[in-house]
Design goal:
484 residues, Nucleotidyltransferase, domain 5, seven-stranded mixed sheet, five-stranded mixed sheet, 14 strands, binds iron/sulfur cluster
Length: 484
């Protein structure tokens, strides 16, 4: 039995960029490390897929334990399909046209089969349909008659009751017509991908918008190694296609940026920030922003760590609800800090609301990194605890300021603000000292799993570092506003 040339993930990789496909197979050592966000997303996808199997209980699991088992499992799948006693298969393995795929769930439907692929998201995207179209093409190519092909994804309006009801949590949507319509296109694309893999050197493909969409490519470190760090491609307020055109025509550095282009005031401001390696402001002036903000030295800086489980874990909550995991509050006045860990249950939610209420009473101004995260989290917790906080929430709203909101409303630019905004970058620029803030995803995982008091204390200190970075950033903007 011949080994496959492509899998579902490598086919999708090739759809984004044939060079990425080539490098994946021929130069895997050039790949970037997976980011914490991507790792978390990957794990989430796997967990939800396994959970959805319970919609079709009693199936036979064909999952290969390692790539060396692919061909064996493919043979076992073929045997299982002709066994009348087997009606449901998980991770059935198929190979056709040199493409190997695994399908989440296959259910016997008389003399036909129904195919189901599970997604951990709340909606269906064009990439998911293409994914399904490839699976449909391969399964049909193996001679298996499919009466339907459905995607299973999460209903964002589902509310967890006493027990998890999978029938209500998941939405099943047939995409049979869409995947059938793509049959010839899939055949053509497989052919193109196989041709790429026959090349003796990587395809000559320039960097472009496709490096980030639909997914951030993991060969950026390799392909972008000669891209200037603070060059034209780092600009955020310009049309990306226009920037890549400039770049490929030799305008790579900011100093080369053409003067003749008609620019918006935001673009002028961003260019000035890059040209002079300085902070610039374009939107609401800091003075005006701070005139709307209660002036007080008695303010607190707050860093909230949240998790957003795809499958709700607390009674009354919904999928992807923001759940408070821990919070650190730093008093600007006394420089004292407090960190609290919340249980991931109803009592944890109630404790969080009590904490917010208490803080609201004692502080005159509350600064956080992103107001929307705090408010969304409060609203989510109010929803599942059914506590009444609406009037207090209104009151809290009036004394809440977000560093992110200052950056956005006052259109603050700096060449070191990667992706336009991140607290670590902002605090590093404003404080003049590198801020090493641990990524939120890792903190959540560690906080939920750590039992040792000493290690937990070390994690708490990391959250306090966030609160300090918020305090530093706010203080900088407040002082700058006074001098405007
Ligand atoms: S970084 Fe861009 S050009 Fe390079 S392989 Fe990835 S998508 Fe293709």
């Amino acid at each position: 039995m011949t080994k496959h040339a492509l899998s579902k993930s490598t086919f999708i990789r090739g759809q984004q960029c044939q060079k990425s496909l080539y490098l994946h197979y021929k130069r895997p050592f050039l790949r970037d490390k997976l980011s914490a966000e991507q790792l978390a997303k990957f794990r989430r996808g796997t967990d939800v897929g396994v959970l959805a199997r319970d919609l079709f209980p009693g199936g036979q699991d064909m999952s290969p334990k390692s790539p060396s088992q692919y061909q064996k499992k493919r043979e076992e799948t073929a045997a299982a399909l002709s066994d009348p006693d087997i009606n449901i298969l998980y991770e059935a393995v198929f190979q056709y046209d040199d493409v190997l795929i695994m399908l989440d769930v296959l259910v016997r439907d008389g003399q036909y089969w129904k195919a189901f692929e599970v997604k951990s998201s709340r909606s269906i995207s064009a990439t998911y349909i293409k994914d399904a179209a490839l699976q449909f093409y391969v399964i049909r190519g193996c001679g298996v008659q499919l009466s339907d092909f459905s995607l299973i994804y999460i209903d964002e309006n589902y509310v967890l009751n006493d027990t998890l009801n999978l029938e209500d949590l998941f939405i099943q949507q047939s995409v049979l017509n869409e995947v059938m319509a793509q049959k010839e296109e899939i055949r053509h694309q497989i052919h193109l991908s196989k041709e790429s893999l026959q090349l003796t050197k990587s395809p000559d493909i320039n960097i472009g918008i496709h490096c980030q969409y639909p997914y951030p490519c993991d060969f950026i470190g390799h392909c972008w190694k000669n891209v200037p760090a603070k060059g034209v491609l780092s600009l955020k307020t310009f049309n990306k296609t226009m920037l890549f055109d400039l770049y490929h025509n030799g305008t790579t550095e900011i100093s080369q940026f053409p003067d003749k282009l008609a620019l918006t005031s935001s673009q002028k401001s961003e260019l000035e920030a890059f040209r002079n390696s300085t902070l610039t402001f374009n939107g609401t002036s800091l003075k005006t922003f701070f005139q709307k903000t209660p002036t007080s030295k008695k303010y607190h800086s707050l860093k909230l760590i949240v998790q957003q489980p795809a499958v709700p874990v607390i009674k009354g909550s919904r999928p992807y609800e923001m759940l408070p995991v821990a919070v650190s509050v730093l008093s600007h006045d006394s420089n004292e800090s407090e960190t609290i860990l919340f249980r991931q249950d109803l009592s944890g939610g109630v404790k969080f609301l009590d904490f917010v209420s208490g803080l609201n009473k004692k502080t005159e101004l509350l600064i956080t990194d992103d107001v929307n995260i705090l408010l969304q989290c409060i609203e989510g917790v109010v929803f599942y605890t059914k506590e009444d906080l609406s009037s207090e929430l209104q009151n809290l709203h009036n004394k809440l300021v977000g560093v992110r909101q200052i950056i956005e409303e006052c259109e603050v630019f700096h060449p070191d603000f990667s992706d336009g905004w991140s607290l670590a970058d902002v605090a590093t620029v404003l404080g003049g000292k590198k801020q090493l803030l641990k990524e939120n995803v890792f903190l959540v995982k560690d906080l939920l799993e750590e039992n040792e008091t000493e290690k937990l204390e070390q994690l708490f200190q990391r959250i306090v570092q966030y609160a300090k970075a918020i305090d530093l950033s706010f203080h900088y903007f407040q002082e700058t506003a006074k001098n405007e």
